[in-house]
Amino acid sequence: MAVGKVTFSKVEREKLAEVLWLLNWISVVTGTILFGLGLFLRVEIHKWQEVMSEQGILYVPHMLITTGLAACCINFFGGKICLDCADTNKFLRWKLVMMPYIICTFFFTSCVLAGALMCYGIRSQMEESLFMGLRNAMRYYKDTDTPGRCNLKRTVDLLQIQFQCCGNTGYRDWFHIQWISSRYLDMSSSAVVDRMRSNVEGKYLMDGVPFSCCSTFSPWPCIQQHLSTSSTQDKQSQQLNLWRRGCRQALLDHYTGIMQSIGLTVLLIWLFELLVLTGVRYLQTAMENVLRLGDPESESDGWILENSLAETARSNFNIIKNLGKCYQVDDDPNINVPTAAAEEELPS
Amino acid sequence: MVVMKMKFPFQKRVKLAQGLWILSWCATVAGATTFTLGCILKTELRRRAEVMDNQDIHIVPNTLMIVGLASLGINYFASKICQDALDAGRFPRWKNFLKPYFAVSCFFTVLMLLAVIMSYAMKGSLESSLKAGLRNGIRFYKDTDTPGRCFQKQNIDRLQMEFQCCGNNDFRDWFEVQWISNRYLDFSSKEVKDRIKSNVDGRYLVDGVPFSCCNPSSPRPCMQYQLTNNSAHYNYDYQTEELNIYLRGCREALVNYYMGLMNTIGAGVLSIFLLQGSVLVSLRLLQTAMEAVAGKENTEIETEGYLLEKGVKETIMEYLDPVLKFLLLKNQVEEGSAAATTTPT
């Protein structure tokens, strides 16, 4: 009992082949779109890579890039095949290639689906990576003389200005780290020495934030220092002075937005590829049945699977099981078969 | 004295018409490009309109947009004319149209060149407009509660951060202005009262700059206040410190930005001007060559084409004559009526 059986006349077969040729070329275009989306995501992640602790997130754009390239090649090839499939003589050329081609296309279509799902599922991993990355970046903010970290101050300042955020979770994160380098602290001053002594680890902590946390929307000049002890200003109105959002949340929202739109586009491309795959499978089975019937002008059936899903799975499983059994002695047909000469000897 | 006389055998005429058709379609695209460039320039100028005192500089993008639209029409007609040129039956209907057409086309093409010249010539006007605008912006920085000025602080902050500049000429402009509003000053503090008293106008002046002047590339946390006091900060010399705040003035930054933009646009418009000029010259040559064929039985003879039948000066006088006559006629009527009114008395 075949799955999805449809009968095709000769005219319908030719039309199907032409339509599939067109769809394959459209798929080449969508493959380039996929490639472009992967490239765009790679560039976006690269921009703020310094504040991400692990590079595992890069496998999402890399997956999209490779799938996009594969889509272009496979569908370009498929366009050629489908055009030839309209004619039974030309189909004979491609007969042996069709099955592996369909399996390849099925595999790569599932990769496209995996890519789309990854775009949605990456959020928690990204949050973790941003949390660790931002914490390290803030810790090394003051190390502008250490090779490998000298640009972190600039990166964090530009990040806070561009994304309108302050600190990891909020502006108070800056109170827990020493963000003013000891090079610029007057160690002879008693105020500085007292502050450093009052801290267990000997760090110069203050209730102030860098200038990049200042909000441009605030109607008053920015108050960066003595944030927890300002008595002259109203606590309420202080809220407007600095950026309220944490940079982790800001970056997460930014990347989630990008990846959700990319994921949606990739899902649509996946549905389109699935349609093309189904069409090619129907065309392949229809053409094979025509060859089996012998008459190129007759009607033939096309299907997705010859038997039901369970039977196909069982038969494939048996094939795989029997692959290793070529040297079994039990199956030798010449053992224990009574010959005519042996039977003749017995009566005498 | 004929200007630029050339011989045109039949094949050359055909080639000229074909080449002109392609050229006129390219020029149409170029005209659309001019219009787009004018729009881009106008948008960029409008974005910073709050720090410009007057809108005189807008004449450059306005001219470009007008010329772009006009050249779309000019080149459309050029393509239609050259299509009909080789057909002896259809060409005569353009006869009366061509003289005013060439006058208008030359006017707009010259206008294109004028727009490019203006974009260089108006640098001084732009600079003085920015100087006045920035001075006002810095003065009204603190007035975030005055209607009409409440966004000055935001605009100046964003401008300084985006263009990496500070103040009008340089950061010292902030020392001469009270940029911290009285609403946020603690008048019970002795320090505040002393500072206000020490100033003739009773203003709270500081040797500090807003946070938007801070340079993120500095290796050191930003020092905004007490900039001229070396002892206020550890290991600090204000005369040699270069990375702390932006040293460039915003006027210089904006002028450089806009002149760069206008130079790029000017180069593009100049090449479009050359293209448009070549379209008009080719069309004129084709027209004069075809006019010599009119009325003859054999249309494949060799003819002569020229740019101007008489010299340049005489042609200009020929075009200006109707205009002058119209004006002079008015004067003559007035003189005549004046004479008529005076003679009886």
UniProtKB/TrEMBL annotation, chain A:
* GO terms for biological process, alphabetical: visual perception
Primary location: membrane
User: InterPro entries, alphabetically?
Assistant: Peripherin/rom-1, Peripherin_LEL, Tetraspanin/Peripherin, Tetraspanin_EC2_sf
Keywords attached to this Swiss-Prot or TrEMBL record, sorted alphabetically, are:
Membrane, Transmembrane, Transmembrane helix
Q: Do you know which CDD domains this protein is assigned to?
A: peripherin_like_LEL
> What cellular component GO annotations does this protein have?
plasma membrane
For this protein, the record's Pfam families field holds: Tetraspanin
Q: Which SUPFAM superfamilies match?
A: Tetraspanin
According to Swiss-Prot or TrEMBL, what is its membrane topology? Multi-pass membrane protein
Carries keyword Transmembrane helix? yes
Where located?
Membrane
Any transmembrane segments, and where?
A: 20-45, 57-78, 98-122, 262-283
- Matching PANTHER family: PERIPHERIN 2 LIKE-RELATED, TETRASPANIN
Concerning its family, UniProt says: Belongs to the PRPH2/ROM1 family.
Name of the protein described by the UniProt record: Photoreceptor outer segment membrane glycoprotein 2-like
From TrEMBL, chain B:
Q: Which UniProt keywords apply?
A: Membrane, Transmembrane, Transmembrane helix
Which Gene Ontology biological process is one annotated for this entry? visual perception
Pfam families recorded for this chain? Tetraspanin
How this chain sits in the membrane, per its record, is: Multi-pass membrane protein
- Primary subcellular site in the record, as a coarse category: membrane
Q: Name one GO cellular component term.
A: plasma membrane
Q: Which PROSITE patterns match?
A: RDS_ROM1
Give the Gene3D superfamilies listed for this entry.
Tetraspanin
Where is this protein localized, as stated in its record? Membrane
| The keyword Coiled coil is assigned to this record | no
Q: Which residues cross the membrane?
A: 59-79, 100-122, 265-286
**Superkingdom of the organism of origin:** Eukaryota
The UniProt family comment states:
Belongs to the PRPH2/ROM1 family.
Listed name of the protein: Retinal outer segment membrane protein 1a
The taxonomic lineage of its organism, from the top, reads:
Eukaryota, Metazoa, Chordata, Craniata, Vertebrata
